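(Protein data)
===
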Amino acid sequence: MKKKSNALVLFARTPRIGKVKTRLNPKLPQETILKLYTRFLNDSIEKISRIVESDHFIAGFPEEDLAYFDNVSQEKNISVFPQSGNDLGEKMRNAFDDRFNEGYEKVVIIGSDSPSLPLENIRMAFHSEKDIVIGPSADSGYYLIGMNRGRIEVFEGVPWGSDAVLSETLKRVQIARASLELLPVWYDVDEFQDLALLKTHVKCLSYSGQDFPKETLEFLEQIEL
């Protein structure tokens, strides 16, 4: 049930062995990867639940395997819906369209690959008055995309999975003549070498008393990197 004027959507895959964070294999065993991704997901769910500016959603994949999120939906008051579309762009387009059709004025989508993402970055997206707000990631993609007052077509023809995702999306923003706000650059965790950075970073956050992904750090300290 719609309570706020904003919607925050977490794109996530159901944790199943051999189906998540596949680029970490063979550096890590499949069982370890599954446990690590589950921590990423748990911390991401905890993060979005603390954003008071919005209603909360999980866009799950695959559609036939969403029962995993039932407890989360009840405990955290997070609505779950399936990702629909042939590629990431189509899935995000549909998620935007559906939330705007439900009456939301601002919609923000994030992924589950940035467990250390600061809450403030998400809050900045909701406070933006621009047509589109994008959080660039260090791998030439983006960790967040949000839109105000309706979906603008920026997804068609973007080469998903390439190092041109951000640049091609920005070209489409210009073509659409939409106003744009870029958030601070952050990083996703996709490759094995990203884990060392993540571990060092979140340990520093914990030492300094700042907010940090607790389950992720607890598990990273148990594995050899």
Summary: The chain has seven helices and seven strands. The first strand starts at residue 6 and ends at 13.
